[in-house]
Please model this.
Amino acid sequence: MANFDSSEAVFQSSTEQLAKIMNLDEATPDAWSEEDMPAMLRHQLAAPLEFDLSSVEMKGAEAKKRDRTLTGAAKERIKSFEDLLFHREPPLALLRLSKEFFKRRLQECKKDSPEWNVAYLFYLLSILAARDHASKISSLMSSELRKGMKWALERRWMNEKTRQFVELAARAGSP
Model:
């Protein structure tokens, strides 16, 4: 296997690639494309819950409760979003945190960007996973949730497991 020379890679990069690297803290609206969506979905499903959900800003007792919830999830071997969303008895507190995390991501991302689409899907999945266990964690109207499920099912980049989850929720009837 050849050694990677980072200085050589810099010299072989285009100006657009270098601009993205140098502006890591800035939003790069063209960083992702439609072709990246399946990989973005896989990445978010595998993402560690603790890393993302501990970033949900909370103070005092709320932050301590969040941290206990994340510690409890790790003990139950719920470590990724896939573990949480497809768990047979997902902890409601974690689903609420997940919903809030993705709701905030929706506000941070440009509407209809690839990042926004992934955040919206996971926002919906969090709500549907709670509903699947007879709990309501959102104030969305039934019509809004049905519209969201229809939107999700139109995403060609969604993997089969996630698609089946949304299809089951849609067949279950009104939220």
